[in-house]
Records
---
Amino acid sequence: MPKSGRPTSKDVAQAAGVSQSTVSIVLAGKAAGRISDGTAQAVREAADRLGYRPNLAARSLRLGQTRTVLLVVPTLSSLFFGAVYTGAARVAAEHGFGVVVYPWPDVAGPAENPFAAAHEAIDGILASSMAVDVLDGLDPLPRVMLDSDPEGEAPTVNFDVAEGMRAVAGHLAALGHRRIGHVAAAVDAWTFRARAEVLSAAVRDLPGGELLRDHTEIEISAARTAAGRLLDRPDRPTALVCDDDLIAAGACKAARGRGLDVPADVSVTGFDDMLIAAAVEPELTTVRLPAEELGARGMAALLELLDGRRPGSVSLPGRLVIRASTAAAPRG
Amino acid sequence: MPKSGRPTSKDVAQAAGVSQSTVSIVLAGKAAGRISDGTAQAVREAADRLGYRPNLAARSLRLGQTRTVLLVVPTLSSLFFGAVYTGAARVAAEHGFGVVVYPWPDVAGPAENPFAAAHEAIDGILASSMAVDVLDGLDPLPRVMLDSDPEGEAPTVNFDVAEGMRAVAGHLAALGHRRIGHVAAAVDAWTFRARAEVLSAAVRDLPGGELLRDHTEIEISAARTAAGRLLDRPDRPTALVCDDDLIAAGACKAARGRGLDVPADVSVTGFDDMLIAAAVEPELTTVRLPAEELGARGMAALLELLDGRRPGSVSLPGRLVIRASTAAAPRG
DNA sequence: CTGAAAGCGCTTACAG
DNA sequence: CTGAAAGCGCTTACAG
C-alpha cells in the first residue's frame, strides 16, 4: 500500500509478500529458472493491481543509461524532419528506446547547446543536416550524422544526392535544355554543396551547356525573388533547377508573375518530393528523398554503435520523379 | 579526478577541496549568503575545468520531478504540430523545462500508450487535437488539452474556430454565394465538429442558403475526390469551404480538372494558413490559426498547473486572411 | 528459489 | 560558512 503518490517496487514487494529483488527480477522478465511460477504470478498481479510503473530516473541512475536518444534537427518547420523523426522513432521503439527531438539552433538558438538542455539524459545523438562542424567539440556521446558531410569522424547515413542531381541534369539535357539556372539554397550544409558541385560538373560536360546560379533562403517568397533575378537576365535560362520543392514553388510563381508558362516557357525542378511537390500546379518534377528511411537507417546505425559495433556508412538512393513542371526547351 | 567517464559532483568537490554539498549549493546558484565568494569561485572553476554536468537521472530521482513535459500530437506529418511544438518548447525553455514530442497514435500506434514509452519520465502532459476521450483513464499526471473539447476535465487552450468559421461564411455571403459546399475533415475531433456546426448554422441563417457536405481525409488526393463529388452535383455549389488548407489545395485541383476556374467559377477557402496556403495558385483565402501561440499558451497553462495554480481556459482568435481563391459568385 | 545489502549521483535538512 | 549523512527507487552481485 503506497503511502502517497506512485507505488514503488517496495510497495509491490510488500503487497506480494516478497522482496524488492524478486519484484525487480520478475518484472524485468528474468524470472525463468530463478523464481517459482507462483511467486512470479503473485508479483505480476500485485504490480497490476497497484498500477505500478517503474521510476525511470531511478533505473537510469542505477543502470547508467537512459535508453533515450537525442535527434538534433535544424527545424521542425519542414515536413522533412518530421519524417526523419518518424523513421527514427519507429526503429527506436522496436528496441525499447525513446527519441527526443531537439530543433537546433532554430528554436533553442545558437547560444544554448543541445546538451545543456533539460532533456539531456541521453545515450546517444542522431544529428541531421547540420552545418559543418557545428557539433564539434560538444559532448563526446556516441553519434551518427544524417545527411551530413561524410568526411567527419562520426558514421553517416546520407542520400546519394550526386546521383539525384545527375538525374535531374540528364532529364533536362534530354529535353534540350542548355542554359540552366540553379536556384540554390543559401544554407551551409553538405548536401547543398554536393548538389552545386554535381550540377556544375554536369552542365560543364554538356555541349553548349551554361549554368547561371543564384541563392535563396528555403522559403517561397525569397525563392520567388531569387528565381526572378535569373528570369530577368537577358540570357534567360530555359530551366530552373531548385534545391528544394519550396524553392521550386517560388520559382513557378516568379515565372507566372512574368507571364511565362511552366513548363512551356521554363522548366522547373524541385528536390525532396515533400507534400508541396504534389500540391502545386503544375505538379513538380523532383527528386524523391526517402526521409523516413534516413531516420530509420540512422537509428539502426546508432543502435549498433551503442552496442559496441562500428556501423558502416550508408548512402540511400534518391529517385527522379517526373511530373508536369518540365518539358522540352522552347526553341531559342 | 574522475576514474572513468563523466565527472560527478564528488569529483568536483575533491578538485575544489570542498564537500559535495558545497558543490551542489554553489552550482544550483544558492550560494548567496551561505558560501564564501572564494569557495564558490573555486567550485565553479573546478566544475568548468572538469567539464562537469550534473547527472539528470540522479537529480530527478532526488527531486521527484523531471522538469520535462510530454507533448502528445496526432502526427508530425503536418507543419501545424511542428509549430505547436516550437511555441511550447520556447516557453518551456524559459522555465528550465524540456519538451518531449510524442506523435500518437500516428507513429506509436494505438496499442502503445504515451506513458508506457521509454521517455515517460515526465512531470506533465500537453495533448493537442486528440480525438475525444482518447486520453481518459490513462496517467493522472497534470495535463492541459490543446485544440480539444473544452467540456473535458483538464484546462484547455483552444482556437476560436466558431468565430473563424463565421468569418468565412460571412465573407462568402457578402460575395453573393448561397449554395455552399463543405469539404469536411473526416477526423473525430472537437475542432471539426465545431466548424461543421457553425457553418451549418450560418448557412441556415442565410436567406436562400443551402449547404452540401462531404467528408475526406486531410490529404490532397482524397480531398480532390471528395470535392469532385460536390462539384459533379447538378446543384453545384459556387463555393467550397474546406476544413484545412491541404483539403483546399485538393479542391482547387478538382475544380481545375473539371475546367472550372478558381475563383471565377468556384470560390475555395482553406483553414489554418499553413505554408501551403501561400504556395499554391491562386493563393488561398483561409483562416489563420496561431499554432505557435497555441503551444506557448498551453505550456504556460501547464506550468501554472504544475505550480499548484488552476489556469483558466483560453481561446485564441483566428483571423480571416483574404487572398485570391475567393471572388463574387458567378451569376446563376 | 529467495532475500539483504550496496550503490548509482544528486540535494537537502541538520549539525557544528 | 561548511561538512557528514540520509535517502530518492532501482538493479545486481552475493549469500544462503
---
Amino acid sequence: MSRTDEVVDGIRRMILDGQLRPGDRLPVEKDLADTLQVSRGSLREGVRALSILGVVHTRQGDGTYVTSLDPARLLSPMAMVLDLQDDGAMPAFHSVRRVLETEAAGLAATRMTDDAVAEARAILDRVPEIMHGASVDHDRFIEIDIAFHRVIAAHTGNPVLEALIESFAGRTVRARLWRGLHTEGIEERTHGEHEAIWRALAARDPEAARIRMASHLLGVEDSLPRPENLE
Amino acid sequence: MSRTDEVVDGIRRMILDGQLRPGDRLPVEKDLADTLQVSRGSLREGVRALSILGVVHTRQGDGTYVTSLDPARLLSPMAMVLDLQDDGAMPAFHSVRRVLETEAAGLAATRMTDDAVAEARAILDRVPEIMHGASVDHDRFIEIDIAFHRVIAAHTGNPVLEALIESFAGRTVRARLWRGLHTEGIEERTHGEHEAIWRALAARDPEAARIRMASHLLGVEDSLPRPENLE
DNA sequence: TGCTGGCAGTTCATCTGATGTTTGCGAAAG
DNA sequence: CTTTCGCAAACATCAGATGAACTGCCAGCA
C-alpha cells in the first residue's frame, strides 16, 4: 500500500471514527504529515485525491476542511468520470437512467409541492418562444430539458436518488446524448412528452407519471444510434 | 483552477480526444510535466487523483497506463466514499438500491443462463449447513447474501447497472446494513425470500422476480432502524 | 462609537533536486 | 534454449525553499 493510500485511508478512518466531523478543519499539513508518518508531498497527494472525491475541501491560506459529506457532493465526481465512457456503453447507461428517472417521477407525483408544479410549468412555458417555426435554439432547448428533469428529481424527497440522476443526466452527459439524436422533429416530440409528464405530476398521479416518464425515456433510447458491433 | 486540476483536466481531455486510449501508456512524469507546464509534484498529485478514481493505473518501475475505463472500474471508487455517509442517509440509500435491484431481478429473469440459475441455486444450498439450530454463522450468512444478489446483478446484461449495484450493496455497505438488523429470525425470513426470488428466476418470470425482489428489499427497509431526528 | 484600511502570521501551492525501490529487458553463462 | 545477473528506466518518497492567499487584529479616521 502506497504512502498516499495510507493518507487517504487514514483520513477516511479519522472521519469514520468521529475524530473528524463534517465542517471540521484538518490539522495543518506538517502536523498531519507527522501524524501519518509521511512527507508533506505524499500527504498532499492524498489530500488532493480526497478533495477531488469531494470528501475534503481546501482553501489556500486558510486550511483544509471536511465537507458536508452529503450524497450530492460525494456522487458528483462520478459525472466527470462517466463521460469517459465509450459511446458503446451509452445504451446500458441510459437504461439505468430510465429506471432512476421513472422512480423519481413516481415519487415526485406524490411529493411535489404546488410551487414545484408551478416551477415545472414555468420551465415548459419557455419552450414555445424558442421554437418559432423551423429554427430551434438547440442549446436552450437542452437547457430546458435538463431543468425539467432536474425539478422532478429535486422533489423526490430522496437526495441520493437526486444526486444519482444528476450524475447520469447532467450537462455533459446530456450534451453527448443529444449529439446523437438527429431525428426530425425530435424537439416537438420531446416537448409533447414533457407536457404529458407534467400533467401526470399536476394530477398527483404517480402511476401515470411513471408510465409517462418511462415511455419518454424509452423513446429516447429508440432514437439512440445503434452500436456498431453486434454480438 | 489549480495546477493539479489542470493536470486532471488535461489527461481527461487527452483521453476524450482519443490521444490516449485504454491500455495506453502515459508519457513519463517529466515529459508530461513539461507538456502540461507543471512541476513533477503537481503532475503527480493529478495523476494520483485519477489513479484513485480508477482512470489510470500506475506501476512503480514501469509506467502509468490508462485503465480499461469500463463502468465497473470507474464506479467502484464510489463505494469507498459512500460508506462515509451518515447513518441517517441509509433509508434514502436503500430505496435506491431497491429500485436498482428490482430492475436487475426483472432483467435477470429473462437473461440468466441455465448455468447462472444453477449457480444461484448452489449459493442458496449453502445456507442450511450454516443455520444449525439457534446459532447462525452471521458472517458467512452475509457472504451468501452478497453472493446471491451479485449473481443476479451479474446476469442483467447491463454492466452499468451491475456496477452501481455493487457500489450500493457491496461488502462494506452491506456489513453496516446488517449491523442495524437485530430482528429475531431475520436470517430465516431473508433466506425464505431469497428462495422465492430464485423460484421466479428459475421460472424465467420477470414480473414475479421484480415483485419478489421488491418485497424482499422493502422488508429489509422496514427492519431498518428509524432515524432519530424526525422533522 | 463604528467603520475602514493595512499589516503580520498562518497555511496552502508550487517548484526543485536528490535518493530509494521496483520493473523490464537484454546480455552473458550454463 | 533456458536461466541468471546486472543495468537502465520509471515511479515513490523525501526535504527544503519560495510564493500566494486568506484571517484576524489593530490603529486611524469619521
